[in-house]
Amino acid sequence: MHLFDRFKVYLYHRNRIKTWSGNLTKIQGWSSEHAQQVRFDVIRGAADFNGKHVVDLGCGYGELFDFLSERDQLAKYTGVDQQRQFLKSAKQRLSDKLDICRFVRADLSKFTHDNVDIVVACGSLNYKSRDSEYLTSMVAHMYNMAGEAVIFNLLDSATFPKQNLVTGYNKQGVYLYCKTLCESVELIDGYADDDFTIVMRKS
Hints:
- By secondary structure, the protein is of the alpha/beta class.
- It has helices at about 5-20, 25, 35-45, 65-70, 85-95, 135-145, 170-180, and strands spanning about 55, 75-80, 100-105, 115-120, 145-155, 185-190, 195-200.
- The protein has one domain (about 5-200): Vaccinia Virus protein VP39 (Rossmann fold, 3-Layer(aba) Sandwich).
- Strand 2 (about 75-80), helix 5 (about 85-95) and strand 3 (about 100-105) form a beta-alpha-beta unit.
- Helix 6 packs across helix 7 (about 170-180).
- One of its GO terms (biological process) is methylation.
C-alpha cells in the first residue's frame, strides 16, 4: 500500500486509541464486539485450523488467535500489522503464547513468509488505496503465500455507504477475479448486512 494511504490508516487508529482508551473493539474500527466476533466465526468455520500455521494480515491485538484456539491447536500464528501499539499490546497480552505466536510490524502488501498453511485478512483489506489494483494484487499475494487456503472478508458495496477511509467491493466481481486464480472459491454472505467472505482453497 502507498505510504500516504498507510499513514492515513495509522492516524485513524492513533486517534481512536485516544478516543476509545481500553476499548479494543472500537480502537480497531469495529462497530461492535458482535461485528468482530461474527466475522471471526465465519473464518473459523471455513477451514480446519488444527495443526496449521496461520498468517493473520492486519492482526490488530491478535484476538483471532484466541478465537481460533478455542477450538483448534494452531501449530504457529504469525500476526502482521503496521500499528506498533497494537503489536506491543498483543505481545504483552499473549506473553505466555510466544512459543507459537509471532508478531511482525510490516506493510501487509510486502510481507511474505514460507511454509504458511492459511492466510487470513479480516477487515484489513477495506482501507482505500490510490492504487486501483491494490485489492487484486493483495489477493494474488496472499494466494501465492498460502499452502492450503486464503480467507478474507470485505465490505459489500451494494449495502455499505461510501466513506473516506474504507470502501466496499462488488462481491460477484471479487469472486470472479478469485476464480481466475483458484478453482475452488467460496463466497459466504448473509451473516452481516454489509460484509462478505471469500474462501480460496488450494487442492
